[in-house]
Amino acid sequence: MKRISFFLSLSLILSLSFTACQQGGESAGENATADMEQSTEETTERPAYAIVIHGGAGTIRKENMSDEMEADYRNALNQALNIGEKILKEGGAAADAVEQTIMYLEDSPLFNAGKGAVFTHDGKNELDAAFMDGATLNAGTVAGITNIKNPIRAARAVMEKSEHVMLIGPGAEQFSEEQGLETVDPKYFFTERRWEALQRILSSEKEEIGYVDNTADHKFGTVGCVALDQTGNIVAGTSTGGMTNKKYGRVGDVPIIGSGTYAKNNTCGVSATGHGEFFIRYTVAHDISAIMEYAGKSLQEASDEVVMNKLVKAEGSGGIIAIDKDGNVSMTFNSEGMYRGYAKPGERVVGIYKNE
Ligand code: ASP
């Protein structure tokens, strides 16, 4: 009897101190990152739906932004959320919400995707996109395409209409055309603002340096969306022009499943934005899902571990948006800012800078 009560009190002491450690660890983590992340209060009561978007992360500072430009960005983020939220509210599929929301962002010249895509070193626009379904783990991606108006539609078509996951260049374009997707003259992707950004970088470039990361032009601007629909399905999508001045057919993290894009219904959906080479090496999107699955961490803890710890140590700049199976949202970034927003029933947040 004595023995039993000794073990009972020992296990009580152990479990109390374990909980205290956990709580201590959590609050220390929160303090370290409080100004750079936005998340909803953790819950296990799933809302009817949830949607989160980003329009890129990078050197986004209020002092470099005109009031008009800021209003344009906030308006575009709200419009994009309206599109996806309407679909989800009416009981539509997460896949449709993600596709339609991203198409709106691709059609806007404000973002580095579709119409606003950045230029390669050779003065072209080469677009990457990814789409992933958390229920089936089916995924479709395209890389280096030049004439498909909405690359996110091409990625979804690869997922739904082909036996492959990733198509690149002319093959991806041929497949997209065969699927009846709208094509455009590559000149459609020309915007003065992105062209000037390339010229500025070219005139300052030292030949041995692949990327110049010190100008406001170099903000990333990729777009992404994750949605949780009323059936509990999570879908993630991402679309980008890549990075200004990219060379030699460079492909970033966006169409690499598990790096810039990932979705799995029993953990979370993630879409990333930032310096793609780091997001590939650190398999950012899948790592967040794996930390939740194998270490039992919450979405915010997993996002912090990857974005605010691993990536910061590696000097990999950028951020992620994510939704977990219970509808918790994470918008976590280690850069100056990230265009972002989320909506759930009765709740809407749109942000640009850190500390807001
Ligand atoms: N991650 C993208 C890339 O490296 C860039 C971005 O997020 O804007 O291609």
Q: Give the uncertain stretches in residue-range form.
A: 1-35, 207-216
CATH topology of the largest domain: Glutamine Phosphoribosylpyrophosphate, subunit 1, domain 1
- Bulk shape: globular
CATH superfamily of the largest domain: (Glycosyl)asparaginase
Largest sheet: 8 strands, mixed
Number of strands: 13
The side-by-side strand order for the widest beta sheet comes to 5-4-3-7-6-2-12-13
Distance, first to last CA: 58 Å
Indicate the percent of residues in helices: 25-40%
Provide the residue-averaged pLDDT: 87
Radius of gyration (CA) equals 21 Å
In the CATH scheme, the class of the largest domain would be: Alpha Beta
Bound molecules: aspartic acid
Task: Tell me what portion of residues adopts beta-strand conformation.
Answer: 15-25%
Q: Find the structural class using helix and strand composition.
A: alpha+beta
SSE pattern, N- to C-terminal: HEEHHEEHEHHEEEEHHHEEEE
When the domains are counted, the total is: 2
What's the architecture of the largest domain in CATH terms?
A: 4-Layer Sandwich
What's the SSE blueprint?
Blueprint: H1 2-33, E1 37-39, E2 50-58, H2 67-89, H3 94-107, E3 127-133, E4 139-145, H4 151-161, E5 166-168, H5 169-178, H6 192-204, E6 223-228, E7 234-240, E8 261-263, E9 268-274, H7 276-281, H8 284-295, H9 299-314, E10 318-324, E11 329-333, E12 337-344, E13 347-353
Parallel strand pairs: 4-5
Antiparallel strand pairs: 1-11, 2-6, 2-12, 3-4, 3-7, 6-7, 8-9, 9-10, 10-11, 12-13
Helix pairs in contact: 2-3, 3-4, 4-5, 8-9
Residues 56, 112, 220-222, 240, 242-243, 252-254, 260, 273-274, 276 line the site of aspartic acid (ASP).
